């Protein structure tokens, strides 16, 4: 069926699959909306106890540097409370990863329209075929770089949203040291972000696997695969 309408099955099914995978990749990345919660049990004197509770949003683009809570937690100095931010985030890697996913989605739409509506032009113009192959190589590299960076960014998110591991309570200071006590009560669920990393590397594998089919349509492959011409015989020499 693919041959009858003028384009290969690999092109016909590759772009819709890549488009769907790219949607899943960036959609699962931006879908997270969780909270970090902790409270400080403050000892004022010998018997007086107060509890200060803070909740901090964790959502795309995961710029935790701009997520603040007020300190000190237990006592308010005459000058008033001040803002304290979380230690680290993953803004740059998350935004780059989503950028790759959106660009690939748009390119898949444009390439699919080219395959369906302008197949004769695609097959007759070697420059378009070559450009499609080179762009696919760049997209494969972008998925590899973006997925690797986002995987490390997710590791950082998990670490810096666990206040005991990253030392955030130590940064708060006296309000979280004896006799006072700070306890983290809410932890973000990063299941959707784990899935987004998997989709990123899956996209990279799909694009890398399809490079061979694109290469077979470039003039470079056709020149190499062209059978050598047989030497012509001269009747006068026979």
Description of the structure:
Pfam families: MARVEL (PF01284). It is a multi-pass membrane protein. Belongs to the synaptophysin/synaptobrevin family. With 238 residues, the chain is an alpha+beta fold. The protein has one domain (4-220). It has helices at residues 9-30, 91-117, 119-124, 126-160, 163-166, 168-172, 191-215, 219-225; strands spanning 33-44, 48-59, 68-71, 82-85, 181-186. It has a 3-stranded antiparallel beta sheet with strand order 2-1-5, with no helix packed on it. A two-stranded antiparallel sheet has the order 3-4. It is rod-shaped, with a radius of gyration of 29 Å.
The count of β-strands is 5
Strand-residue proportion: 15-25%
Biggest sheet details: 3 strands, antiparallel
Distance between the termini: 50 Å
Globally, the shape reads rod-shaped
Q: How many structural domains are formed by the residues? A: 1
Poorly predicted runs are 1-10
Please give the radius of gyration in angstroms: 29 Å
Strand order of the largest sheet: 2-1-5
Estimated helix fraction: 55-70%
Class from helix and strand fractions = alpha+beta
Count of alpha/pi helices: 8
Order of helices and strands: HEEEEHHHHHEHH
Mean pLDDT score, rounded?
80
List the topology elements.
Layout: H1 9-30, E1 33-44, E2 48-59, E3 68-71, E4 82-85, H2 91-117, H3 119-124, H4 126-160, H5 163-166, H6 168-172, E5 181-186, H7 191-215, H8 219-225
Helix pairs in contact: 1-2, 1-7, 2-4, 4-7
In a nutshell, what does this entry contain?
This protein has 238 residues and is an alpha+beta fold.
